[in-house]
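Minutes, project check-in
Item: structure for the 320-residue chain
Input as provided by the requester:
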Amino acid sequence: MSDDLVTFGETMLRLSPPNDERLETAREFEVRAAGAESNTAIAAERLGAVTTWMSKLPNTALGHRVDGGLRQYGINTDVVWTDDDDVRQGTYYLESAGRPRGSNVVYDREDAAVTTATPEELDVDRIRNAQAFYTTGITPALSPQLRETAATLLDAAQQAGTMTAFDVNYRSKLWSPEEARKTVTQFFQVVDVLIIALKDAKAILNYEGDATQLAHHLASEFDFKTVVVTRGDQGALAWNDNVIHEQPAFETDTVDAVGTGDAFAGAFLAQRLSGADIQKALKYAAATAALKRTIPGDVATVTKPEVDAVVNEGNADISR
């Protein structure tokens, strides 16, 4: 059976001191598998899509920890395993705290195995046979090789008639605004569905307008089929067929905000792949994102009935 959604990117091991402890004084860490594209695959799977996360991992205990950690959520994994001693498993450390300290992320992902992944190593036919293929701007930020690989996979997917989806997902700790702008705007040529945070558009595209203007502008300039603009606690909107659909954010108590955008993307894509219209997809995406914020870790371990309940409690929407 072919996949509804295939995603490609790095998944790291996330190490977090419990109880808002400082990294420099922590004596123990919680360990979880965490990565934008795998988070998205899991969220989509939780809402009914058949999903596969594709990547490259070191053939080590840590690499297998990532693979096993993702499989437990029910998604498929399609991994290129390498015994190359020059690559490793990427990790990141998350120090959580409230105001005024705030949270802090420390990356330790240099020379991760995925940074060497080539299209020739990957099962590109799996992407060609899927309904949709998804990756993010994090992936090309990791290495020149991944810029080539991600671009090749997007092109192969689009050429085969597979819907291509791309979340800009800008990370200032990985590359500069100038580098990001040059690369992602090249990717835009082979993207059907674009997801972009308004703050990222301002950071890397130097865009000064509001979300509605941004969606119209991007759709016109790059000929996307759909543009989704997220606005944090202001909700999200989507441009499709020259119509703007708006969705407010659902109220939520935040336990862990990491992975909120991935949950949104996964739910949106799952709904669209199941035949839902744009407004319903936005609503389910917003509800899944709200639920994710109540769950520790990067992954939206939600259930469809939970998401249904949130959607049915708040039916505010605007289309114009």
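Outcome recorded: Confidence is low (pLDDT under 50) at residues 315-320.
No further action items on this chain.
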